[in-house]
Amino acid sequence: NAGVTQTPKFQVLKTGQSMTLQCAQDMNHNSMYWYRQDPGMGLRLIYYSASEGTTDKGEVPNGYNVSRLNKREFSLRLESAAPSQTSVYFCASSEMGTPSVAFFGQGTRLTVV
Amino acid sequence: TQLLEQSPQFLSIQEGENLTVYCNSSSVFSSLQWYRQEPGEGPVLLVTVVTGGEVKKLKRLTFQFGDARKDSSLHITAAQPGDTGLYLCAGARAGTALIFGKGTTLSVSS
Question: Which of A13, A21, B74, B97 could form a cystine bridge with A81, CB 3.0-4.6 A?
Fold first, then answer.
């Protein structure tokens, strides 16, 4: 089982460039999430999608957009990258209900220069 | 506002020592989870605690959920170098995404 797959694993962007981070899960989960992880800051929620067709802002949504393409795929787009968006990005999925256990991808390490 | 406070932030110990990591909040959670993350990887679930006062054991790791479901602790007995990693607690509430603490970086040297 692949679980949660993120692409790309590494990316370097110039300030102002745009890019889309892709995420797909094969566990038939309803909910999907995008987090960013910075040193000393833990995991901070950017956006999440509780179910297909819905998306909601998390703690740090500014500068990002998301698309829940279908039940399997949830993409994160940076329209105009800034150095402050240099981070490691994690996609996760979970099934609804309590407890809601998250399964994570391996992350995308993004550097904006 | 950090809803989940983890302490300590860093811990460096010798093999064989015991340690406890704390996860505290002023909010009530329906469940609390502990994840472990190794460099270059995503977090992986260790355990979920659901009931106030619940204690779960995973080999040398003991997890406890506070009676009021606002806090949790992770105790490791006789730490080994393989325990090295980032330990994250995460709180779940109905209808919302998981909220993570900032993590505890554990280094166990032989």
Answer: A13
Residue B95 has pLDDT above 80, yes or no: no
CA distance B92 to chain A (A): 7
Return d(Cα B29, Cα B79) in angstroms, integer.
29
Alpha-carbon dihedral sign for residues B64, B19, A40, A18 = negative
- In the CATH hierarchy, which fold is given to the domain comprising B5-109? Immunoglobulin-like (2.60.40)
Q: Which residues of chain A have pLDDT under 50?
A: none
Q: Which of A95, A100, A108, A109 to mutate to test the interface with B (most CBs of B within 10 A)?
A: A100
* Whole-number pLDDT of residue A58: 92
For B71-107, the DSSP string reads EEEEEESS--GGG-EEEEEEEE-TTS--EE---EEEE
Paired strand residues for A49: A32
